[in-house]
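Internal ticket - ligand job 481, nicotinamide-adenine-dinucleotide:
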Amino acid sequence: MTENTFDVVVIGAGPVGENVADGAVKGGLSVAVVESELVGGECSYWACMPTKALLRDAAALRAVRHLPGANAAVTGELDPAAVLARRDAFAAHWHDDGQVAWLDSAGIELVRGVGRISAPRTVEVTGADRSTTVLTARHAVVVATGSSARIPRVPGLADAAPWTSREAASAQAVPGRLAVIGGGVVGAEMATAYAALGSQVTMIARDGLLPTVESFASDLVAETLKAHGVTLHLRTEPESVRRDEAGTVHVRLVDGTTFDADEVLVATGRTPNTAAVGLEHVGLTPDDWLRVDESLRVLGSDGTPIGDGWLYAAGDVNHRVLLTHQGKYQARALGETLVARSGGEPVDLEPWGRHAATADDRAVPQVIFTDPEIASVGHTAASAAAAGLRVRAVEYDLGAVAGASLHADGYTGRAGMVVDEDRKVLVGFTVVGPDVAELLHAATIAIAAEVPIDRLWHAVPAYPTISEIWLRLLETYGRAA
Ligand SMILES: Cc1cc2nc3c(=O)[nH]c(=O)nc-3n(C[C@H](O)[C@H](O)[C@H](O)COP(=O)(O)OP(=O)(O)OC[C@H]3O[C@@H](n4cnc5c(N)ncnc54)[C@H](O)[C@@H]3O)c2cc1C
Ligand SMILES: NC(=O)c1ccc[n+]([C@@H]2O[C@H](COP(=O)([O-])OP(=O)(O)OC[C@H]3O[C@@H](n4cnc5c(N)ncnc54)[C@H](O)[C@@H]3O)[C@@H](O)[C@H]2O)c1
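stdout (structure tokens):
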């Protein structure tokens, strides 16, 4: 047994754990990071990067198809093998040497194995060779263990060797027929990717397609999926799934529909990676999400920080927002919090304060890489109303903007903004259309900076760009007399 003491011990070297460690080390603390699989986490090898690599070639090809001159230069079809090979490179061929080298260069100690809290400020790491290393933290332990795919209890499903997002992201061959259970972000993106790669895709979206985005955006994506040959079963769910000896998967829905597939992808949400973290040693329940306060300290069942506040959780595992960029934003705040607290300095947890992750509640940007892309930040009209805000929402046809019509023949898209009528600031923005991802950050800045609507009129979009949508939305909203 090896024993070591560090200022901070981080369990999980995904994007979030890496960034917490980086911030703490930059502030002069010593940090050990424990990782049981690959340094870089889900995002690098089985989520963000490989899935976007699977989608990118088809998106580029679609863009060319809408420009007659450029289209004339395209003489072949999409090459799935080349797409998969480029994806492999983006997943670093599932080796983490590059990220390990970065940890080394940053002065962060890597301890490989499964980390488990065994006592206050103590993490026991079990290596692949069953060796045990005990790490003691002078100041804090941070849980950044992320999340995994949740498999619903559908009779036969678990025995049918279903794909999760991991297999969908890392597949070495394109199935002839793919069934997708779940109409959320993973389901919609992977249906888009595999339909373009040549699979016959059937989707089951119990709560409708992309139920949390503005319906003008999800409706357009649903139409396009159908145009690409995807069969959509909305507002129903699987009753049973069975894989026969020949390998064919038979799916029966509760509405009586039956169909067959070669693979079945389960994309029905996430479960926290907290089964093996030793939560029982701090009075919490394994498999639960970790509830945190504004400084990301883990809360016990009585709602107060565990112990004297030595345990923190950041990223997917705290269930605030399951997105890499928000987890890394939490990590930056937490790194600074750990440095401040270990030096006896105060932390600023006021809204938008240096150590607060206020954007998690008010300005979360997301791009869904479907055809077309959906980019959104902050509230939808429905979520704003549910949050008790008095809002007015306006929409505009994106295809009618000069820059969009120039961008691609037959450009189809729509945008909407949600304005807080009491404060006269933007609280939500959604745009759907080809190549809209890069439009999003302007809206994120407007919401985070709480730019008054009156001042937004002075932010003039260049002509002829798709950004002119801003002017059209403001005109639709109307200017106060
Ligand atoms: C298919 C898919 C696509 C996605 N695409 C995007 C996208 O485009 N953009 C975006 O922003 N987000 C995307 N996400 C979400 C994103 O992947 C997560 O929000 C992000 O990975 C969370 O980072 P994390 O560091 O909290 O957790 P993870 O990335 O899950 O990392 C946690 C790490 O902890 C390790 N670990 C777990 N338990 C232990 C233990 N006991 N001991 C030691 N190590 C442990 C794991 O091995 C892992 O390396 C996607 C998710 C999926 C499933
Ligand atoms: N581009 C991106 O930013 C991106 C891409 C992929 C994933 N992610 C993140 O990863 C997380 C996980 O994505 P996800 O799609 O797995 O979860 P999700 O919560 O987005 O969607 C899951 C969907 O599954 C459906 N569902 C649940 N149980 C079901 C059942 N028994 N039968 C049929 N349908 C069922 C729900 O209606 C829901 O719409 C998300 O929070 C997302 O933010 C982000």
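Auto-summary: Residues 11-17, 34-37, 41-43, 47-48, 51-52, 114-115, 144-147, 165, 169, 186, 273, 276-277, 315-317, 322-325, 327 surround flavin-adenine dinucleotide (ligand 1) (CB under 6 Å). The CA atoms of residues 472 and 478 lie 10 Å apart.
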